[in-house]
Structure formats: structure tokens, C-alpha cells
Amino acid sequence: MANKIIVCQTGSRHRYLIPRVLEKNGMLGRLYTDTTAKSFIGRCARMISSIGIGSPSVMRLCRRQPGIPNDKLYTTDMLFWRKRAARIRRGDSLCKRYLHYTGFVNKCISWGTGDADCVYNMYIENYDFLVYAKSKGLKVVVDIYETPMTYKYLIEEIESNPEYGIFRKQIESYGYSHEVRIHYMEDLLKLADYYTVPSQFVIKSMNVFRNFDKNKVLFLPYGSSIVPDKYGYKPVKHRLIWVGNDPVRKGLLYCAKAADILKQLYPDLDFRVIGVVNDELKKAPAFKNLNFIGVLGREQLMEEYRSAEAYVFPTLFEGFAGTVIEAASCGCPIITTECAGTDMGEFPAIYIPQKNTDSIVQSVRYLFEDSQRRDKLSMEVYEYSTKLTPEIYEKRLVEYFKEI
């Protein structure tokens, strides 16, 4: 059993959910992380915000609130300063990309391991600290939250579609990220005692690595961040939604192509795009039949899910798509691919092949023309979502640590 666990993570992934859960259950030893609202830079950001200066970067830092006792929070601005120095300095871009994954590893090592018996780490971040922790006798658990081939797939998708021309400048950065990840993967898989993996899709993608050991897998799908009080699905005729911040990865182009066809069949079609999307993309002719709404708050997003006849999400590769579970919890019928990470044998979505516009069109028409089937699917997906609540995720996470 792991009694005292060090969580090591860069940024506020899952809004610090894992250290919060472990602290709640008396299992958190320490949280090792970079800049938070309580580090020097974070406190400066809070002070600037208090006098009315609220840039997006400042507000992001203010929201980095781990929510654990101060004596267990080990936070450093080392990565923050090193990244800014790297922007000024000319030099090897690959080395700069390594910095993102190793930017405060020496600080982690200097903090030591205390009385911990386990370290929980986000993917390849701060790998040398994992080597150090292992040498001290700690068990190592790694969160492999998406396929290691993500950046390679992104490059291929951008190069294959001229509609994504505005993203070509990111190809070099994606290439470096892929190289860094692959550099560590085999050693990481061998070093780790266990991997937490959110979906069968990720497990399937790991089989190309010789050191992947399926016996080390702890299957841990994420819980929904939206849990409505009751079922309240009230669809608006011919309304569809897509939600996300990465149009390439999450297949927005195929939604746009489907919208061009569906608009001819249903002139009142309202295909709404929720989230952060590049302004140039919004103006591109290929995306003209999509309605870009922007970023919404939690309550507004719930209303979008509840009012859409379908959530169309032709994603190309995920770990486990949280938006799919959000949509399900609001009773919104879902059209997606196996890459969303849901269990195709159990999760009641309409599954389509990747990159297949015709399948999107046919699936949408199926729901538009058969409201009874749409409503049945709505209830089925809502009922399934009750198996993926934050409470169930928390229980499963704690049980795993008690067993290892």
C-alpha cells in the first residue's frame, strides 16, 4: 500500500485534482510543481490582478490554486524564469523544448523524498527525479494520459490538409515535442512500477513500445467535470455542437465539411463551435458554415449540451475526452470515433470512422429525422454518465494506491 505519495506535475493539470483527492484521503505526502498562485510569481500576479490589470496570462496564474495545505505544497518559479530566458536566447529549439519537460527537475531532487513511499508523475515530466525517487526505494506511478504519438499525428494531419495551412508554423514545434517524448518513453515504461491509463485507445497505442508491460496498467477513466442535478435535455431543432481548444486534433475540419453538406439539406442548421479557436480559422472559407461561439462558462456550456441535437466530435486521437463525458452527463447524443477513449462496447455513442465526412452527415441525419431514437440515445448516454462521476474516479484512484 502507498501511504505517502508525492505528486509531481507541471502546470495545473486536472485543476490539481489528483493531489486534492490524495490529500482528502490522507495519502498525500507532497505536491511538487512549478509556478502557482502561492509562489513568488503567482503572488505578483495576484497583486497585479487586485489593481485591475488582468491579462490572460496573469489570470491563468491567479487560478493556479492547488487547494492543499501549505506545508505539503512545494512550488517553484524556476521553470517560469528559464522559459523566459530561453525566449531571449538564440539557440537550439530542441533544447528549448526539452526545457518544458525538465525545467524544475533539479529542484525536485533537492526537495528530496521525505517520508514518501511513492511518486505519482505526469508522463515524462522531470524524468530524472523519477530515477532519483526509484533509487530511494519509492514506487513510481506514471500518468500516461494520451497516446505518445500525438505530435506525430498532428504533423501528419496538418501536412495532409491545406485547410490547416495557418497551423503549418507549429509543425517544427510539434516535431521537437515528439522527439523529446520518444526519447524518454522506453526508459519511462521500464522504470515505472505502474501506469495509469484513461482508455483502451491509449493502451492500444502503447503496444508499439517494446518496454510496455500491460501488467503494469491501472485503467483509470476520468470523471466528468460537469454533474447536473437532474436530466434536463431540451434539444433545439437542427442544432449541433463541437467543443474543444485544438481544432486539428479534434477533427473540426470534418465537422466543417459535414456542415457544408448539411446546410444544403437543412438551411436552418446551427453548427456551434465552443472553445478557443484561431481567429484566422474562423475567417477561412472552409469553415464558413460553422457558428463560432467562443469560450463559455460552466453553466452556459451545460445549456449548449442540453440544447444540441448532437455533440459531433470526430476526434483523431485522445487519451480520454472529457468533453464527451460532459456531453453525456447533460444527455446530449454523441457522434464520435473510437479515438475519443470511451468504451465502444459499453458507451452508447454513435461511432464513426476517422476522417469520414459522409459518416458524420449520415449520423446527423439519422438523429434529425428520428427524434424518438435521438431521445432514447440521450437517456442512455445520461444514465451511463452516472458511472463516471468525480466520486467514482476518486474512489478508483484511492483503491489503486491502496493496492500497490
UniProtKB/TrEMBL annotation:
Stored CDD domains: GT4_PimA-like
Protein name, per record: Glycosyltransferase family 4 protein
Short name of any one Pfam family annotated for the protein: Glyco_trans_1_4
Organism listed in the record: Xylanibacter caecicola
